[in-house]
Structure formats: C-alpha cells, structure tokens
Amino acid sequence: MFSLPYTKLPHVGLTIFSEMSQLALQYGAVNLGQGFPDYNMSEELIALVNKAMLDGANQYAHTNGYPLLREKLASKVADLYQSEIDADTQITITPGGTYAIYSALSSFLLPGDEVILFDPSYDSYVPNIELCQAKPILIQLEAPSYQIPWEKVREKLSPKTKAILINSPHNPTGSVLSENDMKELIDITRNTSIVVVSDEVYEHLIYDDYQHQSILRYPELIERGFACFSFGKTYNCTGWKLGYAIGGANLMREFRKVHQFNCFSCFTPTQVALAN
C-alpha cells in the first residue's frame, strides 16, 4: 500500500471537536462543544436563497465577492465601528471564517517566521501556521479571566515575529478584549512590520455592558491587520461555509493572490441572499 514518506502535520489527528460531536451523536447527548445551534436558521433567509437561485444567480460570483454584499459590509463597519472601508479593495468574501484566517496567514508568512498566539485557542490556528512552515509561539492564558498578559507578549517578540493572532470574543473561554488591550496591541506593533490577524467570528455574541473591540475600530490596526468573520456564526447557517475578511488594502492585495487560486469564487445564491 502506498504511503507518503512524511506528513506535513505529524501531531494532528481527529480534532477534539469532531471526536466529541461523534460521541454526542452516538449517545444522544447535548453537545455543548459544537459551533452551531440546534434550531433552524431564518426562514426569510432561506426564502431569499431560493429566490436568488430562481432569479438566475447560479454562476460564478466575482472572485472578491458579490459587489452588493461587500458594499453592505462596508456600511456595517461604518455603522458599528465608525471606520471607512473600501468595499472594492479591502473586503473579500470567503468560504468560511477558518478559510479567511488561513488565507490571511499564508498570504505573508514565510518559512521560519514566528506567530504569537494564545493558549487555549481554536484548534485550526497552530496547524494553519505550521502549514506555512512558520513557528507558533504560544502564550498561556490563565484562569479565571483569561486576559492577555501583554508583558509576556513583549518578552516573546523577536526579529522573526511576523504576526500576532488574536481572538475576541475568545474561543473557547468566552473572554473579551478591552479598549486597553487594543491600546497595548497598537503600542506593541507600532513601528514594526508585524501583521495582526483578528478572529472575530463571534463579534455579535457579546453580552452585558461589553463592547466588541474589533481591530476595525482602530485605523492603526486596520492598515496592518486582517479581521476575519463568519456569516455562519451570525445567521445560524454554518453549513453555508461563508465568511469574509477585511484588511488594509496592501494586505488584501496579497490575500487575494492566495484566494484566487484556492477558491476562486464562493457560492453565489447565498451571497445574493445575505446582501438582501
């Protein structure tokens, strides 16, 4: 039997999420680890997808995403985060948030580069970095607050540091970044070539008096960052595998070089439905 003489991800097997989902199905248990709800998505959105298909939106969408959807997202950013984003040069529709994160990383990482990130974390981050032949530099988040220890971040900085990967609201702990956290991030990255990759797929799952601190609130971070989002998490349609990335125009130019040869285009009817 043929087998490869090597593996690019020697430490990766079945993820804990897949394992627990299988066990939950096997034993009929409530799965508190899954990233999707047990109730159906909006009937209005289902109807809009059907309408889009019946109206003929069944061919390739623009590689960068359905134009009206990108325009609506730019308006959303202006309303929520008071930032001007160019829909043509700074927004790309992707097949899910995880894809957006990996494409962002692979658009600029080179072998031997280092990426600072935080543990525990979403399970795709480390393999994504390793597939780019870069090195993950993990910093432990401590209970009960799971806040980022910025002094440790400063200690881990090196000439090889090419990115800092953040996630808020945080998966799996639920912690959220504050305005002070963002000021620390701005201070650390100022006058460097460090790229900030921000996983914000849970941007609307935030409660009490907390305010989501997107990097899109901060011009200094927009130009050196990628913010990655998921329509699936927002609209309870994870099976659609649709998300988007927003970033500085120079960074997005590199992102799209990767995107066009990995995906080319995302499912058109869902993009049209979400735009409407």
TrEMBL record:
<protein>
    <submittedName>
        <fullName>Methionine aminotransferase</fullName>
    </submittedName>
</protein>
<feature type="domain" description="Aminotransferase class I/classII large">
    <location>
        <begin position="30"/>
        <end position="275"/>
    </location>
</feature>
<dbReference type="InterPro" id="IPR015421">
    <property type="entry name" value="PyrdxlP-dep_Trfase_major"/>
</dbReference>
<keyword id="KW-0663">Pyridoxal phosphate</keyword>
<dbReference type="InterPro" id="IPR051326">
    <property type="entry name" value="Kynurenine-oxoglutarate_AT"/>
</dbReference>
<dbReference type="InterPro" id="IPR004839">
    <property type="entry name" value="Aminotransferase_I/II_large"/>
</dbReference>
<keyword id="KW-0808">Transferase</keyword>
<comment type="similarity">
    <text>Belongs to the class-I pyridoxal-phosphate-dependent aminotransferase family.</text>
</comment>
<keyword id="KW-0032">Aminotransferase</keyword>
<dbReference type="InterPro" id="IPR015424">
    <property type="entry name" value="PyrdxlP-dep_Trfase"/>
</dbReference>
<dbReference type="Pfam" id="PF00155">
    <property type="entry name" value="Aminotran_1_2"/>
</dbReference>
<dbReference type="GO" id="GO:0005737">
    <property type="term" value="C:cytoplasm"/>
</dbReference>
<dbReference type="GO" id="GO:0030170">
    <property type="term" value="F:pyridoxal phosphate binding"/>
</dbReference>
<dbReference type="GO" id="GO:0016212">
    <property type="term" value="F:kynurenine-oxoglutarate transaminase activity"/>
</dbReference>
<dbReference type="InterPro" id="IPR015422">
    <property type="entry name" value="PyrdxlP-dep_Trfase_small"/>
</dbReference>
